[in-house]
């Protein structure tokens, strides 16, 4: 693929770009710093009051209560998925470690120098019942999740879990 000679819109330096970059509305600047300098300059057309007013007027029909997503929360929101809890995994990790011994339930390794993982026994990440959470070290967690192992010749062997 051949490149086409262009001149930077900010510093007028010569540079080369592929045709596809020009087709995709690119190839105007020789570097990111020139692009950002141009974008942030004071006389950038996008910062003119007439242009900003035009953008504001064109978006007035979808702002505030006119927005089709206005007030849609929880099960009304299109991205709602089966009532998942939005508590992060690290919070469940702390809860599990506060209520269970701080050692791997498979090999007995303690948390010195290694971070213990929390494994969902039934593989359902939504089921955060303490009976479903298992404290495991990284190696045992990997063995639980990926039971197939390789022998010294690189062949797959069945893992023991």
TrEMBL record:
Domain HNH nuclease: 92-142
InterPro entries: HNH, HNH_nuc
SMART domains with a match to the protein in the record: HNHc
CDD domains documented for this protein: HNHc
GO molecular function per UniProt: endonuclease activity; nucleic acid binding; zinc ion binding
Name listed for the protein in its UniProt record: HNH nuclease domain-containing protein
């Amino acid at each position: 693929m051949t490149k086409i000679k262009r001149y930077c819109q900010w510093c007028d330096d010569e540079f080369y770009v592929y045709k596809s970059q020009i087709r995709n509305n690119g190839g105007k600047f020789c570097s990111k710093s020139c692009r950002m300098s141009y974008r942030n300059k004071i006389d950038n057309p996008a910062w003119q009051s007439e242009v900003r007013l035009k953008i504001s007027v064109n978006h007035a029909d979808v702002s505030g209560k006119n927005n089709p997503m206005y007030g849609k929360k929880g099960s009304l929101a299109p991205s709602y998925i089966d009532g998942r809890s939005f508590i992060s995994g690290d919070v469940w990790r702390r809860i599990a470690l506060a209520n269970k011994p701080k050692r791997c339930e498979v090999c007995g390794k303690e948390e010195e120098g290694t971070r213990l993982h929390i494994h969902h026994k039934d593989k359902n990440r939504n089921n955060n019942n303490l009976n479903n959470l298992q404290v495991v070290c990284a190696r045992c967690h990997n063995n639980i999740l990926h039971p197939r192992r390789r022998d010294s010749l690189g062949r797959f062997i069945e893992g023991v879990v």
